Amino acid sequence: MEIADLISPETVVADLKATSKKQALQELSRRAAEATNCDEREILNVLIERERLGTTGVGHGIAIPHGKLESLDRIHGFFARLDTGINYDAMDDMPVDLIFLLLAPLEGGAEHLKALSRVSRTLRDQERCERLRGTENTDALYAILTEDNMAA
Predict the structure, then answer these.
(1) Which overall architecture, per CATH, does domain 3-146 show?
(2) Which of 60, 66, 76, 112 is catalytic?
(3) How confident is the model over 105-120, as pLDDT tens digits?
């Protein structure tokens, strides 16, 4: 599974406006609802429930919120770069400015885990993250995310 299997240029946001974790999740839920034809409130509720289990703020300014929805037939990814880092209750207490949202079908256990692993590996690349932080162009963000300059 490649990042290009999860996102498209239309699901990449270069300048998400949010001042809190809740606001970021609300805005991403709104955009995800438009792209997937799923209910915005259902998406937000799934993400909030997942956050209650433990933060998806993985550290180094990165969050990977994720959840499963009955109404999906495949995995959908959404990437957002925030102009300013927000408090996300991340594991390292650092502000989050890069968010990769994953939504999977309810029955997509193995594929969901593969997608999470791929996103995690991609965003573990510090040089790639610095390049993501250094651009405000949606097409450039998509290109940086989907280039394969590391082992899968």
Answers:
(1) 3-Layer(aba) Sandwich (3.40)
(2) 66
(3) 998 778 889 999 999 9
